[in-house]
Amino acid sequence: MSLWVVATLLQRGSQLERFSDGLTLLALAYGMAPMLGITVHPFATLACAVLTALGVLHKYWAIRVGLDAALFAHLANSHDLAADTLALDRALIELSLKPLAPDHRNWPERSKAALALLRRQGVCLALQIMVALATLLILPFNG
After folding, report:
1. Can you tell me the distance from the alpha carbon of 118 to that of 113, in angstroms, rounded to the nearest whole number?
2. What is the C-alpha separation between 11 and 16, in angstroms, rounded?
3. What are 44-72's pLDDT values in tens digits?
4. Among 32, 77, 78, 100, which residue has the least CB neighbours within 10 Å?
């Protein structure tokens, strides 16, 4: 059951991803405003660059969390978790997604590592929100 709970938590990462994607697209659109002849404050340009960079970093973590969510959901339904764990590790090694060294972590340790990825994804989104809010609060006073 704990694998299913972790899978369910990791699936919430897709909601974080959608919000981050929206912020990133807004930053890109605003950052491209000078191409249309619209003048943009230099601080806003910097903020757009930071928001976009954080969005790309967030996307990286979101991809990792999404992969783990699918794997945990699949393994939560396993009838032979030990054999499926070996098969998973073998497949990850074959795809060069994991080092060749044997992985002796148990599922509670793997769960903690997967949830740490979700936290990293959340931190990226929180930073994006803080930069966006700071920009909205500071720009009117610099204009």
Report:
1. 9
2. 10
3. 889 999 999 999 999 999 999 999 999 99
4. 100
Q: Helices 42-76 and 81-94, interaxial angle, to 10°?
A: 140
- Exposure string of 125-136, with b = 16+ CB inside 10 Å and e = fewer, is bebbeebbeebe
Q: Residue 110's closest CA among 62, 72, 59, 63? A: 72
**pLDDT at position 99, please?**
82
In the chain, domain spans = 2-142
Residue 34 — φ and ψ, nearest 5°? -60, -25
